[in-house]
Design a protein that fits this description.
The chain is α+β, with helices and mostly antiparallel strands and 482 residues long. The protein has 3 domains: 3-94, Uridine Diphospho-n-acetylenolpyruvylglucosamine Reductase, domain 2 (2-Layer Sandwich); 99-209, Uridine Diphospho-n-acetylenolpyruvylglucosamine Reductase, domain 3 (2-Layer Sandwich), CATH 3.30.465.10; 213-432, 3-Layer(aba) Sandwich (Vanillyl-alcohol Oxidase, Chain A, domain 3). The chain has 15 helices and 18 strands. An 8-stranded antiparallel sheet has the order 14-11-13-12-16-17-15-18, with helices on both faces. Strand 7 and strand 8 (175-178) form a beta hairpin. It is globular and about 65 Å long. The chain starts with a helix and ends in a 16-residue tail after the last helix. It binds flavin-adenine dinucleotide (FAD). Flavin-adenine dinucleotide binds at residues 67-71, 73-75, 81, 93, 112, 133-135, 138-139, 141-143, 145-146, 148-149, 194-195, 199-200, 307, 316, 431, 470-471. Flavin-adenine dinucleotide is lined by residues 67-71, 73-75, 81, 93, 112, 133-135, 138-139, 141-143, 145-146, 148-149, 194-195, 199-200, 307, 316, 431, 470-471. One of its GO terms (molecular function) is oxidoreductase activity. It holds the Pfam family FAD_binding_4.
């Protein structure tokens, strides 16, 4: 950065804060980028002033403007959320707080920087739940702008489908509310639209009455995994219980493999028929099973601590594909390829390597459509689908290139195998995507052209397209899949 760029940026930041530069703590790969300035606004007006002050510099190419929230749960590769050394300013929305229940207790307004556990704690006082992250420590903004898969997905669609209003600071610095009545195009585009349209400062979401929730994790010997995949296919095909939610995973950690299923019944029905096969599959480590009657808050805290103990090393990489239909043999193909990659990576210090299958049922996709649709635009008739997600954690930079290479290779092989059998779906879930994936193109041609129109209308100069590094961008995505 030249001296003149630096002083222009400092002047712009000083006009809002006086003094603003500091360093962030987050995933190690992100930290290595060390943005020159981190602005941590607390109020919408400060975000507005920041955008107004920095916009001319972004447009002249003198400054990049990155947006981040908690940044510790998904986007952990270089350049994903922070600006890099050359690029200058990161706007960190973590201090934008506030959780306010509407007088009629039908919606809650949540500041972008809240964590889900705080939201659950507040709603629990009123016997309410919301479609937030199973992980209480995850940030609200990134989760909802990526789509969001919650334990309520069977009832509500993606988490973003419960958002009735976004408050957004646009590229012009104007603050708008996007809902079904005002800026409905922006409202729909933001549901899965990531950081493409502005800086979201709050979300108004529908809330739901809830009693206790039955859920937790059951653990198995790895040889049970094939049977679990069979039951996962039966569950997704059957699609008879919208209150039930399950994902099936296998992981390698500390030299050992374990299979596990995370399952929930949001109406608190213990051992519901839809989830019984997962409870009965053997060999199971029954003494480790955590499935019990609980609350959204307690389950989310438990899940956060499980994630934290599993992810002690800060270098993370996710990648995923979406599989169409419920063919066990297709899921098994992906599992076999994961096993082969594991053999290549096993020697890496601190390796934790997970493969997860997450069903997106037809009824879940129907709920998204009924809620007004979203940027991901998956027609219910495409369901049921499975997200096949790979998550890798390792230690130190020595093995970075080996991990990146192996994971890229694994995903390419899986795409070829699944695609060869006619089961590859265009969708790639943003929160589990590899940074080189074409997430936006995976939303499909019609949706991409709608998103482009929205971007042109609300950000005609392309501030958030050209000037905001990280995430997955709309205007420069080509080709678009059908
Ligand atoms: C172990 C693990 C488990 C997970 N489990 C789940 C799960 O069960 N379900 C699920 O759906 N996801 C899950 N995730 C993904 C996680 O929820 C996402 O990574 C989420 O984006 C984190 O939210 P954040 O607010 O910290 O966003 P960040 O990581 O800070 O940002 C994510 C993206 O959103 C943009 N962004 C952030 N804040 C704003 C804002 N205010 N305005 C505009 N753009 C913004 C950023 O620029 C970036 O592109 C998991 C991830 C991990 C590692």
């Amino acid at each position: 950065m030249s001296g003149s760029q630096r002083s222009q940026i400092l002047a712009a930041l000083a006009s809002v804060f006086g003094d603003s530069a500091s360093q962030l703590g987050s995933a190690e790969l992100e930290n290595e980028l060390k943005p020159a300035f981190v602005a941590r606004p607390k109020k919408v007006e400060q975000v507005q002033s920041l955008v107004r002050a920095l916009r001319p510099l972004v447009l002249s190419g003198d400054c990049k403007l990155a947006i981040r929230n908690s940044g510790n749960r998904g986007s952990y590769f270089p350049g994903s959320v922070s600006a890099d050394v050359q690029e200058e300013v990161t706007i960190d929305t973590r201090r934008i707080k506030g959780i306010k229940l509407s007088d009629d207790r039908s919606t809650v307004k949540i500041g972008a920087g809240e964590r889900w556990s705080s939201v659950y704690a507040k709603l629990q006082e009123y016997g309410l739940v919301v479609a937030g992250s199973p992980d209480g420590n995850a940030g609200v903004a990134g989760f909802l702008l990526s789509g969001g898969l919650s334990i309520l997905s069977g009832e509500t669609g993606f988490a973003c489908d419960s958002v009735v209003e976004f408050q957004v600071v646009l590229a012009s610095g104007e603050v708008v509310r996007a809902n079904t009545e005002e800026h409905a195009d922006l409202w729909r585009s933001l549901k899965g639209g990531l950081n493409n349209f502005g800086i979201v400062t709050s979300f108004k979401m529908k809330v739901f009455k809830s009693g206790p929730i039955w859920g937790g994790t059951a653990y198995y010997s790895p040889e049970a995994f094939m049977e679990l995949l069979h039951w996962a296919c039966v569950f997704a095909e059957d699609d008879s219980d919208e209150h039930a939610n399950v994902s099936c995973c296998i992981d390698y950690r500390s030299g050992e493999k374990d299979a596990w299923c995370e399952m929930y019944h949001t109406q608190g029905k213990e051992y519901p028929p839809s989830l019984m096969p997962f409870m009965e599959t053997q060999p199971q480590m029954e003494e480790d099973c955590t499935v019990h009657i609980s609350t959204q808050l307690k389950l989310s805290k438990y899940w956060s601590s499980a994630i934290e103990s599993a992810c002690t090393n800060p270098r993370h990489l996710s990648a995923s594909i979406t599989i169409k239909g419920c063919m066990v043999s297709v899921l098994e193909d992906v599992y076999e390829e994961w096993e082969k990659t594991l053999e290549e990576l096993k020697h890496i210090i601190g390796l934790s390597f997970t493969l997860g299958f997450i069903p997106l049922t037809k009824s879940m996709l129907k709920k998204s459509a009924e809620a007004g649709g979203n940027a991901m635009a998956i027609p219910p008739s495409d369901g049921p689908l499975f997200l096949a997600m790979v998550h890798t954690v390792w230690e130190g930079p020595t093995h970075d290139s080996r991990v990146f290479e192996e994971i890229e290779n694994l995903m390419a092989v899986c795409r070829r195998l699944v695609g060869g059998k006619g089961h590859l779906h265009r969708f790639i879930y943003g929160s589990y995507a590899h940074h080189e994936d074409d997430v936006i193109a995976g939303y499909g041609r019609e949706s991409v052209s709608r998103l482009r129109e929205t971007s042109k209308k609300y950000d005609p100069e392309g501030v958030f397209q050209k000037g905001s590094p990280g995430g997955f961008k709309i205007l420069y995505h080509y080709p678009v899949l059908p």
